[in-house]
Every structure is written in structure tokens, then in C-alpha cells.
Design brief:
By secondary structure, this protein is an alpha/beta fold. It has helices at about 1-30, 35-40, 45-50, 55-75, 80-85, 120-135, 160-175, 190-200, 205-210, 220-225, 245-265, 270-275, 280-285; strands at about 30-35, 95-100, 105-110, 145-150, 180-185, 210-215, 290. The strands form two sheets. A five-stranded mixed β-sheet has the order 2-3-4-5-6, sandwiched between helices. It has a two-stranded antiparallel ribbon with strand order 1-7.
Length: about 300
């Protein structure tokens, strides 16, 4: 027994050394980066991109560089609640006030409460909440859980296939390994036709994280409850808690978090309110290397 434990520990150490080596290799390949990109590219971030590309450094580098290019133009860290609050009035997506059993941030999505037709605004709202969920992750967690409630959903709420693909691409390409699990709770049978199309846009890893839960299917319910404490889980998801979205209260929390985000990224809210864009000098004062200089 001791030998098996020792071998297991040895294998774990080798895996960590391999991962560290790959992270350092990716750092070196990326070279000098602008300040904000450097802040984004933590060791944990590089590891997520490496995992997403099965530890292939070249593919990970390409994926990460595409994200850095996207972030430099889309500027997700600069989106503020007042810019997307209209999308959030119905509570169609919001950060829950509880965590899963692993302590991960939980996003609740209620597509039946869709209140707009602008796909661009919908994606911007989702990106804001993804960034906010990441901001509120515990230090020992890097992933979030999604709970999707289909109450009130009908085919009229289905987004165009291209819009669904664009949304999935943002999630998969620019937020790799951020999703731990997504529970689709009691989706109507008519949703299956939409799902048969959309699932082909998911990469295999993401596809495995999507779980369908039906209240009358004990196995699926047990699986979801293995992730959540039933006392915290809202009744809409088979739990005992009351789900209430207070837009005014949630807005207050988001404004507070906007201050935290500004501090994290090194700019003041006065700067942000004064202009929605930053000059190139502000975005990239001096390229800095991810690799520490040799001593």
C-alpha cells in the first residue's frame, strides 16, 4: 500500500513539473507583452490555455494571442454595469448569492426572461458577468458553475444559430477552462431540436461539462445535488431555497464590484467614465516579459 501511495505521489510530482515546464515554455514563446496583457497572463491563466489545447504550446500560444487581441479591442475589463444594466433588468443572468460545494461562483441563467433582441448587447452583458464571476472567485478556485432554468422558455426565445455560435466562440476561445459544469434544468422537449444544432459548436471538453437535469430522473437530480447543497439550491432547481432577483440590490453590488475591477486593472472610475476607450499609450506603456531576467 505504501509503495502504491509513493508511486502516486511521485507521478503527481512529475505531472506538476511537466505543467510548470510547459507554462515556462509558453511564457518564453509569448515574449514581451503590454502591461495589461501581462497582468492577464498569470501562470494560472497560461495553464488554462495549455489544458484547453492538451498542453500543446504552439496551439496554446495561438489561442492566447487571439484572446489578447480580442481583449485589446473588446476591452471586457472596462465594461461597467451602467452600460449593461438594461439587459439585466429581468434577472435573466446574474451571479447567485451562494456557491457550489467546491466554493465556486455560480451564475444563474433564465433564458425564458430574455428582454432584448440585440445579440451584441446580450453578449456584452454575458461577458460583463463572466468577468464579474471571475472577480468573485475564491483564491483557490478558477472555475464557475452555471445553473440554467428553462421556466417560461419557448422557441420564440431561441437565438439565431449564428448568434449562438458567436456566443459559444467567445466562451470557448476567450474563457477556456472557466466553466466547471453547466446544468440545464428541465429543458422542454422542443429545446432538443435547437440543442442538436448548437452542440456541434462545442468542443468535446465543453460538451462533457453540459448536464441535462430532469426532476423525475433520479440519477440526473442526484448528480446536480452532488455539486450543490440542497438548502442553498433554489426551488426552481429542485432545492429548498427561495430564488429572488432584486435588480436594485444587484445593481448596487455590481457598482461596488466595478470599483474593485478598476483597482485590479489599475485605472480609476473617473478615467473610465470620462472615456470608454484608452489610448495605445495607456493600454501598453512598455512591453514587459513574462520571463524573469536571469540573475
Amino acid at each position: 500500500m505504501f509503495r502504491r501511495w509513493n508511486n502516486s505521489l511521485h507521478d503527481q510530482e512529475n505531472d506538476e513539473l511537466h505543467a510548470e515546464s510547459k507554462v515556462n515554455e509558453l511564457k518564453a514563446d509569448l515574449g514581451p507583452l503590454p502591461d495589461r496583457s501581462l497582468k492577464y497572463c498569470t501562470d494560472a491563466c497560461l495553464r488554462r490555455y495549455l489544458i484547453a489545447r492538451n498542453w500543446n504550446v504552439d496551439k496554446s500560444k495561438k489561442m492566447l494571442e487571439e484572446t489578447l487581441k480580442w481583449r485589446s479591442t473588446y476591452k471586457p475589463e472596462e465594461i461597467r454595469w451602467h452600460e449593461v444594466a438594461g439587459e439585466g433588468e429581468t434577472g435573466k443572468i446574474f451571479r447567485a448569492n451562494f456557491h457550489d460545494r467546491q466554493g465556486r461562483t455560480v451564475l444563474i441563467l433564465r433564458p425564458g426572461l430574455q428582454n432584448s433582441t440585440s445579440v451584441e448587447d446580450q453578449i456584452r452583458h454575458l461577458v460583463y458577468l463572466l468577468e464579474n464571476a471571475m472577480l468573485n472567485l475564491p483564491e483557490d478556485q478558477e472555475q464557475m458553475a452555471w445553473l440554467i432554468d428553462f421556466t417560461g422558455w419557448s422557441p420564440s426565445f431561441s437565438v439565431p444559430v449564428k448568434a449562438a455560435r458567436d456566443t459559444i466562440n467567445v466562451l470557448q476561445n476567450h474563457y477556456p477552462e472557466r466553466l466547471a459544469v453547466a446544468f440545464l434544468y428541465n429543458p422542454p422537449r422542443i429545446f432538443e431540436a435547437f440543442w442538436k444544432i448548437v452542440k456541434y459548436f462545442l468542443d468535446p471538453k465543453t460538451f462533457q461539462k453540459v448536464k441535462f437535469v430532469y426532476p423525475k430522473n433520479k440519477d440526473s437530480v442526484d448528480l446536480m445535488r452532488s455539486y450543490f447543497d440542497v438548502d442553498n439550491l433554489p426551488t426552481e432547481f429542485g432545492g429548498k431555497a427561495t430564488l429572488k432577483y432584486d435588480h436594485e440590490e444587484f445593481s448596487r453590488l455590481m457598482v461596488e464590484d466595478d470599483e474593485k475591477t478598476a483597482k485590479l486593472w489599475g485605472f480609476s472610475e473617473k478615467q473610465k467614465l470620462g472615456s470608454n476607450t484608452y489610448s495605445g499609450a495607456e493600454l501598453a506603456p512598455e512591453p514587459a516579459s513574462l520571463v524573469s531576467p536571469a540573475s
